[in-house]
Amino acid sequence: MAESFIFSIAESLTAKLASRAYEEASRVVGVYDDLQDLKSSLSYVKAVLLDAEQKQERSHELREWLKQIKLIFYDAENVLDQVDCQTLRKQVVRAYGTPKDKRLDRVAANRDKFGLQTIAVDRRVVHRREMTYSHVIESDVIGRDHDKEKIIKLLMEPSLDNNDGSKHISVIPIVGIGGLGKTTLAKLVFNDKRVGESFPLKRWVSVSDDFNIKSLILKIINPLSDFASSTNAPGGQQNLIDLQIEQLQHRLRNMLEGRKFLLVLDDVWNEDRVKWVELQHLISVSAQGSKVIVTTRSQSIASMMGTVANSYHLKNLSPKDSLRLFVRWAFKEGEDGKHPDLIMIGREIVKKCKGVPLAVRTLGSSLFFKHEIQEWEAMRDKEIWNLPQKEDDILPALKLSYDEMPSHLRQCFALLSLYPKNHAFNSFDVAPLWGAAGLLPLQSKDKTMLEDAHQYLSDLMTRSFLHNVVDCGTFYGFKLHDLVHDLAVYVSKDVCQLVSSNTQDIPENVLHLSFVENGLPYNSIKTSLQGVRSILFPVDNQGASEAFLNAWVSNCRYLRYLDLSNSTCETLPESIGMLKHLRYISLCNNKRIKRLPNSICKLQNLQVLRLDGCSNLETVPEKLRKLISLQRLEITTKQSILPESDIAKLNCLEYLCVQNCVHLESLFVGTRLPTLRTLEVTASASLKSLPLDTHHFPQLETLGISGVVNEDWLYRSEDTNAVLRLKTIVLYKMVTLPHSLQRYASTLQTLVISRCYELEVLPEWLSNLSALKFLYIWGCPKLMSLPRDIHRLTSLHLLQIINCTKLYRKYEPQVGECWPMISHIKHTDIRKTWNS
Fold first, then answer.
1. CA 798: distance to chain centroid?
2. Under a CB-based contact definition with an 8 Å cutoff, are residues 610 and 634 in contact?
3. Which of 469, 592, 691, 822 could form a disulfide bond with 478, CB atoms 3.0-4.6 angstroms apart?
């Protein structure tokens, strides 16, 4: 599977070699000519990589050739990274050899014997699913009655005229991940008697592989035109294909003129708005009230095509409906009553499917005619991806979306497999992981690493790969659906490895390791694992020991990402300063460590240093100013004074968190942090002052505050021109909201109020936040009500209330006594609990 990423690696290497920074660095260390040779060999082999990727399954020899190329690319990446290490530039040749030693030119010469074609741009052909049809047996569909009625209600609503007086065709997108039942729902609606009576003319068009206008016109004019290319097609249909598009569009317009028309476009992947607008213009001659239903996995496509207020996001089946569907596929009709013991196991099997109907069907049908308890238990205990899969089962359905993604996005998605299921991600943590792996574009003055990561997350979100997304304006929170997580594990199996007590072996040349259990044997390390670039301990209270550090970390000299969260080590080895490639190191929540070696300040590539939750840390390292690449710093320390002058010299610092520094009395009084964008200050009870103005924080956009009893320390300049232009404020564990938040009314777009357990009322001035787009209220059980004038928040796009008992009762959608006060808000998400 790793060979599917090889073109992306080649592109990354090419970009680095072409950059001025690498050219200058190579001249400094005397390897300029060698890098030019590498550039030439890389260009020669890169030209055929896309073709090789697509043909590798048919040739063992070609797979081996790609494996050799991949390993050479990894070595080349390490050499280029070493060139980029400021302190070791002159030692590159002596310690690691030159790029000419990497054998790329010799291995690349073998490309010609495979008959590979030159393909310069990644426009891979994705094999879409088979064409769909409109027929459905309604009694076979379970749990979609409510969804069906919702869509039919939208169909029956009158269409509105456009501003120019022209007719408006409403477009209703149905959005969701593969296998969720979008097509089935559209079929139920399409075949409903009420819909047939309301729309005299209906057409079902399976789009799937291409949004070709001529093809679409043919399918609308004649539903049988899918078969018109066969030699047995009737003459009339064959004649349609022979017509020019000008003649076809005349026929289409004549057919639709003045007739009320329903068009279903199933499985749309096209993101070219020009093509959609062209089709829209052609069908606009139909009668008032004509509608289009679109099924798609992409929210961006839904937004582009949709005209109703909200896309219809199809939800997962309930556990009860999932079990009913499972029984339907696992037993002959009426036989399930004979096997209550199997039904009990079936309940556990259904949990794997997480409400995705296609997964339920896949597992249920694989047990049809099998009535042995051992067979059912084996199914229960086996990962879904290890089961045999037919073309229309869940793995091909989900992997289709994965295969469609550009190669850089596939790599980023694969790295999410390093975290356990149900992990709560945020973009502040994902960005450095992707950045350390070299998957984000080369840094520029115009765009930060976080902004690049946001773009990639947005791309994944529009493809329905992210679940429970929370858009906080300047950062995202999200989860992965369990089946999507399984897909990430499946596609990354040669690159990423989750290590547990069940792990038999670790693949050679694996790049990323995630340790998900304590007490694993660390005393035997393979030579082949010295190239590991990422080590994580992502599970709470599962951390590294000193034995692990001694056995593993010092051997992995190319480490870029080292997450030692929840570790139990009392110190770090002095040799940590030798890990020159390191971009990220976290000692988050280590309760035992007291000091860090000063050698940590030799890590001039380090972008993230996390010391938050290190409650016994007596002092932060001296000479922090030497960490010239540091972008993010999180600190918990017993110090009463931080080394502010050093921190102020960190010219790349964008994110600063000061957490539980109980002895800290002041913070950055008279100190300026010109590049800081995010500041988080939590539970610092002794803190007496904090300057919050543009003189000290000219770029600050996001402010997080937790556990502040009063706001006296929130120093505010009297200069109105010095007011911060905050976009996001996150408040944790507050008893009241700081009155000073009013100062940001014209710029504040996102407000998060979380775990404020004693908060009873929201201030009425909250309604003055004229720019507010997103309001999140989580875990505030005593909060009684929202401001009476909440209707004044005319910019409010989303209101989310979760785990707020009293608010839920009053504002429950449709039935709560105060629901009318917020029903005008475009998006509302009001739930008793996170899982409701």
1. 20
2. yes
3. 469
- Helices 235-242, 213-221: inter-axial angle, 10-degree rounding: 150
Of the candidates 467, 452, 450, the one whose C-alpha atom is nearest the C-alpha of residue 409 is: 452
Contact 401, 177 (CB under 8 A): yes
Task: Please give the model's pTM, rounded to 2 decimal places.
Answer: 0.75
Residues present in the chain in total: 836
d(CA 536, CA 417): 12
Phi, psi of 59 (to 5 degrees): -145, 115
The per-residue pLDDT of the chain, averaged, comes to 81
| DSSP category for residue 744 | G
Dig out the tokens for 232 from the structure: 């047995």
How far apart CA 306 and CA 299 sit, in angstroms, is 10
Helix axes 407-415, 482-491, angle to 10 degrees: 110
Helix (H, G, I), strand (E, B) or coil at 174: strand
Contact criterion met (CB below 8 Å) for 700 and 724: yes
Alpha-carbon distances of 824 from 309, 471, 774, 792, 819, rounded to whole Å? 12, 20, 14, 11, 9
Return d(Cα 596, Cα 462) in angstroms, integer. Answer: 43
Distances, alpha carbon 406 to alpha carbons 7, 64, 411, 727, in Å: 10, 24, 9, 31
pLDDT tens sequence across 694-753 = 888 999 999 998 876 555 556 565 666 778 899 999 999 888 888 888 888 899 999 999
Q: Which two tokens stand for residue 637?
A: 């320390």
Residue 324 buriedness (CB in 10 A; 0-12 / 13-18 / 19+): middle
Per DSSP, 39 falls in state H
**CA gap 263, 721 in Å, rounded:** 55
Cβ within 8 Å of residue 382, ≥6 positions away: none
